[in-house]
Specification:
The complex is a heterodimer of chains A (111) and B (194). Chain A is mostly helical. Helix content of chain A is 70%, strand content 0%. Chain A has one domain. Chain B has 194 residues and is mainly α. The longest helix of chain B has 23 residues. The chains are: A mainly alpha (111), B mainly alpha (194).
């Protein structure tokens, strides 16, 4: 039996769709804004902006207070988890897009 | 761990499961595994599916080489938990001395030239993603890396730029060296699918 190679493009898109477009405790618009902000995009409303920007730039420097402020705003740990996951995903998918763009251009493959 | 619900598990079943696994493994279940049980349909399921494919699916890279790449991405992102966790898995599949040397300076480490070229690409992708060019990709291809292998490495790099960020934002506890060794055996046996 032949085991096929992973379809990374489909797996990346499935992850993006679920976290940014799927149902959750938080608004989809907030999750998408967190993902964009962590990838260098425009500012989000307080207190989310500080956390998204920090996760994108250097997550090791995230503070207890940054997370606590978002917890007070959302009132739910699941909601905090969703916005943290969305910001982390945004930074990761920026790398995915940039890496694949460089590879596609180098091999003249369709994007 | 900054979110207590992840620490203790959401729902009775997950709380019992976390307690049971900690008991039989004789160690605190690492925070990465607790996240894998939490709000699963939202994140852990699609994240686990891609991570399992990238880290354990068919690839020109060995499991040890992929784990080493993950550890290096973690190093560039200053994520102590992931450096420890994936360095420990790599060390079970490769020489510990080669893993330690690569974590110190991959360009001088006793690893293949194709892996060094790929790591140089991943370093730019992690630290300066918008500066990456087709020329950087060509340099890897010219070092003998296939486009499939480079795509696998890009996927892995993207994934661990996600993992390291939520690990640090949530403030994962860093296990002891002995615990990392035991967790590495579990990760090799069970993989990443959630």
């Amino acid at each position: 039996m032949t085991i096929s190679r992973p379809d990374h493009r489909a797996l990346a898109e499935a992850l993006r769709r679920r976290v940014l477009d799927g149902p959750g405790k938080t608004d989809r618009a907030l999750r998408r804004a967190m993902a964009e902000r962590a990838a260098g995009g425009p500012a989000v409303e307080a207190p989310y902006d500080d956390l998204a920007r920090q996760i994108g730039a250097s997550a090791v420097a995230v503070t207890d207070e940054q997370v606590a402020r978002v917890l007070r705003a959302t009132g739910s740990e699941k909601a905090v988890f969703e916005v943290i996951a969305a910001a982390a995903l945004g930074a990761g998918l920026l790398r995915w897009r940039q890496g694949i763009k460089a590879l596609d251009e180098a091999t003249d493959a369709p994007a | 761990m900054r979110l207590h619900e992840i620490e203790r598990g959401d729902g009775l079943f997950n709380r019992l499961l976390i307690g049971f696994i900690s008991l039989v493994s004789r160690m605190r279940l690492p925070d990465a595994a607790r996240v894998a049980f939490y709000h699963k349909e939202f994140f852990a399921s699609p994240m686990g599916a891609w991570t399992q494919a990238a880290m354990r699916g068919p690839s020109p890279w060995s499991v040890g080489e992929r784990e080493l790449m993950a550890a290096l991405v973690a190093k560039w992102n200053s994520c102590a938990f992931c450096v420890g966790a994936h360095g420990a898995v790599a060390a079970k599949e490769m020489q510990r001395s080669a893993v330690d040397a690569a974590l110190l300076d991959f360009r001088a480490a006793p690893i293949s030239e194709s892996l060094k070229a790929t790591l140089a690409f991943l370093e730019i992708l992690t630290l300066r993603p918008t500066a990456l060019t087709a020329q950087d990709a060509r340099a890897v291809l010219h070092a003998g890396v296939s486009s499939e292998a480079l795509m696998d490495a890009i996927a892995l790099c993207a994934l661990f730029n996600i993992v390291t960020r939520y690990a640090d934002a949530l403030d994962f506890a860093v296990p002891t060296a002995e615990e990392l060794g035991r967790a590495a055996s579990m990760l090799l046996k069970r993989g990443y699918a959630s």
